[in-house]
Amino acid sequence: MNVLDKRSLGAGLGAAVLACAVLPVVLPPYWVYLAISAAISAVIMQSFGVIVGRAGVMSLCQMSFAAIGAWVVLRLNVAEAPGGFYLWLILGGLAAVPVGVAIGLPALRIRGVNLAVVTFGFAVSTDIVLNVNEFPGAKDLTMLDRPAPFDTDGGYFVFCVIVFTVLAVALGMIGKTRLGLSWYELRHSERSAAAHGISVARSKLAAFAISAFVAGIGGGLLVGQLSLVVPQNFAMGQSLALFAVAVMIGPHHPEGAVLGGIFGAIMGTIMEKVSLPQDFGGVLFGVGALLALRSGLSQTDLTRMRKREAGARKLLKAAEDKKTAEEQAAADGATVDGKAADGKSGTPAAPLVVPAAPRPAGDRTPLLTVTGMTVKFGEVVALDAVDLTVPEGGVVGLIGPNGAGKSTFIAAVSGFVGYQGAVELAGRPLDRLSPNKRATLGLRRTFQTTVIAPELTQYEYLTIGAGRRLTRAEADELLEFFGCPPGQVPVSIVDAGSRRLLDVAAAIAARPKVALLDEPAAGQSAAESLALGARLVAVPEAFGVSILLVEHDMELVQAVCEEVTVLDFGNVIASGPTGEVLEDPAVRAAYLGAADVPAS
Ligand SMILES: Nc1ncnc2c1ncn2[C@@H]1O[C@H](COP(=O)(O)OP(=O)(O)OP(=O)(O)O)[C@@H](O)[C@H]1O
Fold first, then answer.
1. Contact 293, 247 (CB under 8 A)
2. Which of 384, 398, 406 to mutate to test the pocket of ligand 1 (most atoms within 8 A of CB)?
């Protein structure tokens, strides 16, 4: 846990203790009652925080999960089950979990508005079922008695704050795990998550399960407040209003959940005081949610990000100063291929090195073997029986003009696109495996368009990529090796070129057998591209990772790749040692144009 987290935890616990000590004493009884409602709403908000705020799933049925928690608590109360309220509360949360998983299943195939409709459908069904079947104890008014010492309103407020705090700490800890970080990645790009070996299905279902548990606890707490609940307490309109608050405020951060809880609980009273209809509060939430959806970030995300960015800019500045000094020293001593580094903002020191000479292919063991790879998109034959091998410890290139099929090749080999043919990694056939399974077996890839969650720091992104918690030293070594900004710097202020390098670093962090890199030099200056080349050449020895490089930058390809395969209209038109292939008249004619090929 870093210093910032400890500070936030201290501040959060301090605020909770203060609220418990002061509010029940100074507030009039009605406001203490409202404070309980706010604390319970804050708990339910945390369930939105997991599924909406972190995983980015549009779930409109959280109050239905809360209703399940409430139903179980009341049922156990009527049955006078052993264990008492505390145990019943947990059982209510647990009872919501399988339902959460069941509702999460459609999320594996559909997303966005369609998924929102499915979850809303569940909310409507729950509404109907609840209205037809009363809650246990409603008929004969079997009320729930709050347990001592939390039996007074003031005491129950303290209990609700304790439950909120325990959940907030637990969710904060989950948020730091790879599962928690993967939710942020899912929110922005499911394919990136899969490429990092994350099971999208498992990760989404876990988010549904945990959010349902938290909502179930919230429902049970509501029973403790009201002694008996009615269907209207869990109406679908409630889910909608709280969803809007969640999107607007961002309850995946505790301060957002508290704010959301307070808004949710007191908005009605405020509207009444200013003589506006109560529903007007919902309209305000809806407008706020629309604004947040447009920017893609909630209010607490933005506030936290600004804070983090302010601190990180100093680190970036220091890195830039260091880079300038290194460039100056290098410029005093030598130039690279006659070109000067351009000092692009936000990119830290890229060592100005002359690229390593290509190494002979030798008789190395084939590590990745692709045979007869054919991919068709309708009438378009994107790949036609392509063979390619990446040897152990090798860096090989895949080049070709725009539309030749290079990205399709990477997509097919990594399991994102269906194909005919065979892919073997270290002798193991991969053809029936999903992208995330291929990734966990040691086949990583990067994308031409890099999508990295801006909420993450670079350290956190490396953790996702590595599939395990890296030591600070390991992470720093990787970032330095690839010339990325310091690890604490949030992705939100890292420039596009550096994000690509970070993506490569994250792929290598997992120490896969083979990394498929799709145009990693795009967005880099000429000097940065050459520096990247020197790094890629060193990757097999430094990290034990072989590389397939897709690039348009011929100087980089020539400097880095011992062998190269050329595609044109999905067909291999040449393959072999880089120098020979680039001299091939067929390659020059079909693809490069003589003027583009640097003399070797
Ligand atoms: N999802 C898709 N649906 C239909 N056609 C596709 C799809 N993806 C790629 N293609 C087609 O397959 C062919 C190969 O495209 P691909 O993106 O693999 O080429 P590329 O060599 O990576 O090009 P570039 O260098 O521009 O990235 C192109 O004709 C492209 O239009």
1. yes
2. 406
